[in-house]
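Hi team, as promised in this morning's meeting, here are the two structures we talked about. I've kept the exact order from the run log so nobody has to guess. The first one is mostly here for context; it's the second one we should focus on when we meet again. Sequence first, then the predicted structure tokens.
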Amino acid sequence: MMLIIALAAVVMTACDETEKKTMLNPMKFRTEVRLGMTPVKDQGHSSLCWAYAMLATIETEHIQRGDSVNLSVAYVARNFMKEQADRYYLSHGSSDITLRGTMPQLVRLIQTYGLMPYDSYHTDANMNVAARKLRSTLVAQVGRGSGLVKARLAADNVLDGSINPLPKHVYMLGMEYTPLEFAHSVCMPDEYMAFTSFTHEPMNKKVALKLTDNYNDERFVNLPVDRLMELMEKSVRSGHPVCWEGDISERGFSFADGVADVPLAKRNCSQTMRQREFDTFRTTDDHCMAIIGIARDKEDRKYFICKNSWGTENPYGGLMYMSFDYVRLKTIAVMLNNIVLPAMED
């Protein structure tokens, strides 16, 4: 029983930052592609990797176009908690307040509630503490039966105090936007598409993956893994980042070393092996990062260069070098810009 509890704790906390000790002799890589990026951020002990990674992907996409944007995770997190506050009150407290999510959820949230630049709305607050305070306030509101309007006001007051009060407008480059106008200026509703690769769902169809954090049954195009890897590589080589979601519970994944790889026996895995790892809970939905480049090691093996959100204290300034073999085996899903899709057709 204690082992099960320990394993559950690893899964629940895998998205947040881990050990900081760095290796003495980091691996050497030869960079083939390196896209632009905003500074590496630190999500602390929150479970907001999906928001950090998808916003980082959008930021890199704009940098590649010659347009620099640095986007607010705090604004997304606040709206996500506020959305859940309604559900919590109306369900009499039978739901919960969580910071966990998936990549498509970020796109849905900004298309619903808008977005702000980092300079307009950011915080040093502990988001886990903010979520706990919100939950505590809602418990009291449910107990009193205060009504949805009062519950919403109470939620806003807690979030104002725990994070920061919200500005009503966004100002950027001398222009004034509403949050929704700003969101549409950096990410259109259908600009990104989500992909996955599992045989328990029909291939070449859009499927709602039954993931714990896929609360809204977001849909993913299910492709064979060879095709998925091809899409990812061609996207990056054509100048467009990829948002990656997958398993980081393997021994071969080390933020301290800045490298993720699999044992020799698991290299170039088959679709069957990949599915078996998922079916037996050895591939879990743990973490998200933005893929911004491609490199090779001294053996000429290919790696994706990933922008992580655990700060800069590793040999590569917070970046991760994730081998193609690791990605092939351990990917849950990816999101990429639709602009590259026509070029992917044979």
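And here is the second protein, the one for discussion:
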Amino acid sequence: MKIVEANIKVRYQETDQMGVVYHGNYLVWFEIGRTEFLEALGFKYAEMEKEGIVSPVVDANLQFKSPIRYGDDVVIKTWVDQYDGLKVVYAYEIVDGEGKTAVTGTTSHVCVKKDSFRPVSTRKKFPELHQAYIQAKGDL
């Protein structure tokens, strides 16, 4: 299984009144991890969008384990948890500077046509990405 890591230094504006990272920012960090993951596979969202395809989040799940604060260094670990040729589920682990898991979660995505939001088979439309997902997941 391929795991890609992205590093983040927590900015002040990402924290809430309690001095911890506001929960909504973790979804932004998941997107950073997902983008890094795709780039590590040799693909870019922007190229898919040029072909009229987008990949919206259709489900998100987060579990909060411990707080992260302003100035902390964190690592976003991202991998493919499930993939069936149409839907891909990315999994994430956000780890603090001491190696402690702070947040885990998943997001589910389906490729759709930008103009109609009709589903598109990754297997058919992007066969190279399809193969890369299978290899990254370790289902060879």
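Starting points for discussion:
The radius of gyration is 16 Å.
The domain at 4-137 is CATH 3.10.129.10 (Thiol Ester Dehydrase; Chain A).
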